[in-house]
Amino acid sequence: MNEFKQRRDRFMEQMDDNSIAVFFAGEELQKSEDEAYPFAVNHNFYYLTGLTKAGMSLVMTKFNGITSDRMFILPYDELMAKWVGGRLKADEVQRIAEVAMVNEASEMDDFIANVYNRSRSYGGLKVYLDLWYYSSKQQLTPAILFAKKIKELYVNVTIIDSYPLLTDMRLIKSESEIAKISKAIDITRSGVYAMMKNVRHGMNEMVMEGIFAFALCQRGCRENAFPTIAASGKRATVLHYADNDQIMEDGELFLCDLGATYDHYCADISRTFPVSGKFTDRQKEIYNVVLAAQKLVENNARPGISIRDLNQMVIDFYQEELPKIGLMKDVREYYFHGIGHQLGLDVHDVDHTGQNPLKPGMVITNEPGLYIADEGIGIRIENDLLITEEGCIDLAKDIVREVEDIENLMKKK
Length: 413
Ligand code: GLY
Ligand code: MN
Ligand code: MN
Description:
Blueprint: H1 3-14, E1 19-24, E2 30-32, E3 35-36, H2 43-49, E4 57-63, E5 66-73, H3 78-84, H4 90-97, E6 101-104, H5 108-120, E7 126-129, H6 142-153, E8 158-161, H7 163-171, H8 175-198, H9 205-218, E9 229-232, E10 253-258, E11 261-262, E12 265-266, E13 269-274, H10 281-300, H11 307-321, H12 331-334, E14 363-366, E15 369-372, E16 377-380, E17 383-387, E18 392-394, H13 403-411
Parallel strand pairs: 1-7, 5-6, 7-8
Antiparallel strand pairs: 1-4, 2-3, 4-5, 9-10, 10-13, 11-12, 14-17, 15-16, 17-18
Helix pairs in contact: 1-2, 8-9, 8-13, 10-11
């Protein structure tokens, strides 16, 4: 039994009786007459099926304690296959997802009518849906459109958000998920080293972004976990600087925040290094405070503590240390983000509260920074930690971060 089927079985175990759960892969968004935006599959759908193509729906059912699952897919289209490649056929869907049944999408409405009628003898139907909706500017998701449609047809159905069930599952990474995140981090290491070895003053930041992308492709990875941040000098004090289009000057620090994906799992890494290959004394002084904060977090990250607690630890540490290096303003003027977040299929993975106690199997980021606009210095160092029974393992420990190691690596350029 593959991992996707195991996950569905676990999900169905937790569903209320006389219920169904529906997950949608999502639809391609058209950009212009003959071009669509790159398609990104819904991550909960992927987590439960292993499938990545648009237009598919997963339906899980539970009646009288008996569970079953099926996929609804679009029919194979020979003409489409000639132009842009074929859709998956039923047998391929069955092989990847190991679902009990595969039906055509056109059969789904009648299937839902059928389960609704069955449920009436048991007091009505509950429907689990992924009700994620982030902003009024986005399009309505297939799950929301589906909820509206069935509410109109079957007014007494109860809609339940599947988010809490899925969050609990996705938060704890399996061995194979940890291996994928580790691989994504290792691919990211190749890209960061290529940047460190090739940086030159006078170069545009976007060339650094390109060097990273090229190094990823050399390792078979085309998909970044998120848009690369490549910021030199003062631009590095803007947290999510995305322009990446300015010239890097000698004497500046360069900050990159980036990640590869491996089989849909993300790395999230930041490194800061001198454009010249050598830190100034002042840059080194500030850098080493950030590095000490990062080590403080990895020494304290363990089950029971929360990301919020770890963040407070860093704030307290900075409060002690910053005045010693002449940074006299409030700490939050120099460090205005949080210490980290969950990492997985999403860069900012499920559970964004930061308040819950960490558990073994979670992967979180550890990303202290200091941003000093007056001095044109922005520093962030970001590693990814696997929480274990005893504490944590730094999955990014092989990407150099000590001043001396960075300078040595950059000498080889
Ligand atoms: N790359 C965005 C972040 O570090 O959270
Ligand atoms: Mn990052
Ligand atoms: Mn991060």
